[in-house]
Amino acid sequence: MAEKLHIVGGGMAGSEAAWQAGNMGVQVVIHEMRPKVGTFAHQTGLLGEMVCSNSFRSDDSEQNAVGLLHWEMRQANGLIMQTADKHRLPAGGALAVDRDPFAQSVTDALIKHPNIAVEYGEITALPESGQWIIATGPLTSSALGAAIANETGAEALAFFDAIAPIVYFDSINMEKAWMQSRYDKGETEEERTAYLNCPMDKAQYEAFIDTLLAADKTEFHEGQTAGYFDGCLPIEVMAERGRETLRHGPMKPVGLTNPHQPDVKPYAVVQLRRDNKLGTLYNIVGFQTKMKYGAQTDVFKLIPGLEDARFARLGGIHRNTFLNAPTLLTADMRLKSRPNIRFAGQITGVEGYVESAAMGLLAGRAAAVEILGGALDMPPHTTAMGALITHITGGAEAKTFQPMNVNFGLFPPVEGLRGGRRGRKDRYKAYTDRAKADWLTWLAPQAAAA
């Protein structure tokens, strides 16, 4: 009987890895501890559950690195992108999804796949034999985390990730708020009005910052440190860095005109993005927080339009675990001390849903090719996936390694192009043109063998 591939964790990375390997004819078993063992952030036992934002970020494959990653995954028949497209919500130039139907569809697709089985229960130790992928994400269970730390001989690195609150739409005062995407971005009216905007004048902004800074926050346990990922900072941490930080970050007022007061430019704007297809839920964009629940309602109700807001979910904070991948993993994502085990997803030190799923795609394909008797070279550094895997498995400085989103700074330069801001559009287009050609070349022999 052919060897099976075992995958620990049914999040974005584990689900994508199983889908890729199953489609290559390999028998796969997904080991998912939920719902038997829960986590702070998960609400269901579904595979592919989104626990933070419902956004996959920019879908622009010509001018944005994450949009390019979307494109590469679609070309590779990626389950996560197929499902995201199926449950897409208006979000301007971004790809946002209806999170509950999305997770249900991922779960249904994997359960129905003839080569994939799902077993529910916690894996607490590193397996001695067999082909395994550990894709337990940032919320790896304490028992398995301890086993990984014991094996690697080093303490697992950790940072704290914060969750943004979700508001019921019917509790928002639309006499103060309005619908508009920044710079009216989008090809349809629905896309151009994808975001809900709450304006603040200077006095309202200053009062908001004062209350935010004074609010009760979650305290860390003894021995824990708050090594946040910069792409997911709590708003109070941003405010502590300077009173104008939020106004130049998630509360920036640019590209928007308030139809209630078209001649008055807001000093700051809070944006909310639709969180479900019905449009009954909206999440506050960029408002991850570690404030205590009572303090959150006091602070967020200072936002014009949210004075009477009702919250479907308040924000929260949880500990995210990741490996020092440049030290511990090989170029094809194996644990150096145990080559039968690969790692994928956020535990490898990538940040974001799409990046996590992309690492699952690569790990699933590499493990499947090995089980089928071959070896898979990782994609070239010039592609989005290649740039990301190269960074985490050796391109990054191990001493200062931190979670990383895909970005054009990870790509090798294209010779002859002008640097600086003025040359950025042409430079990014050159990056993505080269990446697309190289990605299709990398995929071709795999497609022929399928």
UniProtKB/TrEMBL annotation:
<dbReference type="InterPro" id="IPR020595">
    <property type="entry name" value="MnmG-rel_CS"/>
</dbReference>
<dbReference type="GO" id="GO:0047151">
    <property type="term" value="F:tRNA (uracil(54)-C5)-methyltransferase activity, 5,10-methylenetetrahydrofolate-dependent"/>
</dbReference>
<dbReference type="GO" id="GO:0050660">
    <property type="term" value="F:flavin adenine dinucleotide binding"/>
</dbReference>
<keyword id="KW-0489">Methyltransferase</keyword>
<keyword id="KW-0963">Cytoplasm</keyword>
<dbReference type="GO" id="GO:0002098">
    <property type="term" value="P:tRNA wobble uridine modification"/>
</dbReference>
<dbReference type="InterPro" id="IPR004417">
    <property type="entry name" value="TrmFO"/>
</dbReference>
<dbReference type="InterPro" id="IPR036188">
    <property type="entry name" value="FAD/NAD-bd_sf"/>
</dbReference>
<keyword id="KW-0819">tRNA processing</keyword>
<keyword id="KW-0808">Transferase</keyword>
<protein>
    <recommendedName>
        <fullName>Methylenetetrahydrofolate--tRNA-(uracil-5-)-methyltransferase TrmFO</fullName>
        <ecNumber>2.1.1.74</ecNumber>
    </recommendedName>
</protein>
<keyword id="KW-0285">Flavoprotein</keyword>
<comment type="function">
    <text>NAD-binding protein involved in the addition of a carboxymethylaminomethyl (cmnm) group at the wobble position (U34) of certain tRNAs, forming tRNA-cmnm(5)s(2)U34.</text>
</comment>
<dbReference type="GO" id="GO:0030488">
    <property type="term" value="P:tRNA methylation"/>
</dbReference>
<dbReference type="InterPro" id="IPR040131">
    <property type="entry name" value="MnmG_N"/>
</dbReference>
<comment type="similarity">
    <text>Belongs to the MnmG family. TrmFO subfamily.</text>
</comment>
<keyword id="KW-0274">FAD</keyword>
<feature type="domain" description="MnmG N-terminal">
    <location>
        <begin position="5"/>
        <end position="373"/>
    </location>
</feature>
<dbReference type="InterPro" id="IPR002218">
    <property type="entry name" value="MnmG-rel"/>
</dbReference>
<feature type="binding site">
    <location>
        <begin position="9"/>
        <end position="14"/>
    </location>
    <ligand>
        <name>FAD</name>
    </ligand>
</feature>
<comment type="function">
    <text>Catalyzes the folate-dependent formation of 5-methyl-uridine at position 54 (M-5-U54) in all tRNAs.</text>
</comment>
<dbReference type="GO" id="GO:0005829">
    <property type="term" value="C:cytosol"/>
</dbReference>
<keyword id="KW-0521">NADP</keyword>
<keyword id="KW-0520">NAD</keyword>
<dbReference type="Pfam" id="PF01134">
    <property type="entry name" value="GIDA"/>
</dbReference>
